[in-house]
Specification:
About 10% of the residues lie in helices and about 45% in strands. With about 450 residues, it is mainly β. This is Polygalacturonase.
Length: about 450
């Protein structure tokens, strides 16, 4: 809710609470945001894709034009960087890289559309924290828009579209004819100061936005859409990355809307790069799988995560923290608050038996740690099953703290019980009541400091 002019800060906060029950404002009445983590820079020069022979007729392949334009930006290194302008039109292209000090700007009505000749799609090496392609052994296909070892990169515009034309890839997956792991739509690796804002992403072949081994990444005002039956079309997956902010996005896909990751079993343990200091705020969407997820690939560790003011509709699992024996790593200091969910199969799931393994060489004795998870101010209607918290025998989940979590069934009921094993923590104001493993008192327990 915007604050009307001249309204005192405390009145804005009070009005927001009276009308909405909660409000994403700080104590001074300002809208909470991490906007500015990565600045929107003006560039020293602007060039157009048409300057390099690009044709936006939906038939001409513009891969060479994109690559030549990026090469020029990289080679000339103009002071302040360069903006690559993509005019209105449909710009068919194969994969291309971005470079440092570059803005990729999509004008209103501009569509960057992926070619469908998968046989010519470049292959790149597997991620070291995964040891192989996520779907299949060996390499993986390069993302449509890719960056490696870059900094000061902006992808923005006037809500132009990046269309992955994923149908051909999804069909190969369904028919089991994929030779390698499918491409992401946007993947930025080993990079910093990355901003993605004011664009629409459509029909990604695989994950949509994948910052991996990055720092200072901001994703704001992005719309991500794919059919609910499209396989593995995760929305935004921060992976072994630090200082990531995701705000004010709408996501409707065939898999997790946002999933925080950090490597897979023995490869992630060895690479040992965590995901940390991640903020997810004001995200709305729907998915047959999870709304907000951590894992299941989390072997490098995940810590210091804040999720707040999220709205989920027609979703499989609202809040999903998932790991498995063999993962190693830890998930610590996670706070999820002010979540509304409707028509959700399961409200909360914290699971120690989720996800597969890359190969037979993982160590089943590498047990993950889940400690310090706070979930508060969560409301749900037409929730099929309120939740389950199932830790790992020999590695119970600790300091799991639930407060003001009210998840009702479709008829206003909510009598379906929680399922809990191998967990300790506390619960307060939870309906239906979660389980005996969680203490009913915060004041005396390990959760007092989390509230």
């Amino acid at each position: 809710m915007a604050k009307p002019p001249h309204m005192p800060a405390f009145m804005a906060v009070l009005l927001c609470f009276l009308m909405l029950g909660s409000c994403p404002l700080d104590v001074m009445g300002e809208w909470r945001t991490c906007q500015g983590t990565v600045g929107m820079k003006g560039r020293g020069e602007a060039i157009s894709l048409e300057d390099f022979g690009g044709v936006g007729d939906g038939r001409t392949v513009n891969t060479a034009a994109f690559r030549e334009a990026v090469y020029r930006i990289q080679r000339l290194r103009r002071r302040g960087g360069t903006l690559l302008y993509v005019p209105a039109g449909v710009w068919l292209t194969g994969p291309f890289n971005v470079t440092s000090h570059m803005t990729l700007y999509l004008a209103r009505g501009a569509v960057i559309r992926a070619v469908q000749d998968t046989w010519n799609w470049p292959l790149i090496a597997p991620l070291p924290s995964y040891g192989r392609g996520r779907e299949l052994p060996g390499g993986r296909y390069m993302s449509l828009i890719h960056g490696n070892g870059v900094h000061d990169v902006i992808i923005t515009g006037e809500n132009g579209t990046i269309d992955g034309q994923g149908f051909v890839w999804w069909n190969m997956w369904r028919q089991r004819t994929l030779p390698f792991t499918r491409p992401n739509l946007i993947e930025i690796m080993h990079s910093r100061d990355v901003l993605i804002t004011n664009v629409m992403l459509l029909n990604s072949p695989f994950w949509n936005i994948h910052p991996v081994y990055c720092s200072k990444v901001e994703v704001r005002h992005v719309t991500i859409v794919a059919p609910h039956d499209s396989p593995n079309t995760d929305g935004i997956d921060p992976d072994s990355s630090a200082n990531v902010c995701i705000e004010d996005c709408y996501i409707s896909t065939g898999d997790d809307l946002v999933a925080i990751k950090s490597g897979w079993d023995e490869y992630g343990i060895t690479y040992a790069r965590s995901s940390s200091d991640i903020t997810i705020r004001r995200v709305t969407g729907s998915s047959p799988f999870s709304g907000i997820a951590i894992g299941s690939e989390m072997s490098g560790g995940v810590r210091n995560v804040l999720v707040e003011h999220v709205n989920l509709y027609n979703t499989g699992i609202g809040i999903h923290i998932k790991t498995n024996a063999g993962r190693g790593g830890s998930i610590t200091n996670v706070t999820v608050s002010d979540v509304y969910m409707e028509n959700v199969r399961k409200g909360v799931r914290i699971a120690g038996d989720a996800g597969d393994h890359p190969d037979k060489y993982y160590n089943p004795k590498a047990l993950p740690v889940v400690d310090g998870v706070t979930i508060k101010n969560v409301w749900g209607y037409n929730v099929g099953q309120p939740g389950s918290i199932q830790g790992i025998k020999g590695a119970p989940f600790t300091r799991v703290c639930l407060s003001n979590v009210r998840l009702r069934g479709g008829g206003g009921g909510g009598s379906t019980p929680w399922k809990c094993t191998d967990v300790s923590g506390a619960a307060q104001g939870v309906m239906p009541w979660p389980c005996a493993q969680l203490s009913s008192s915060y004041g005396m327990g390990s959760c007092s400091s989390h509230m």
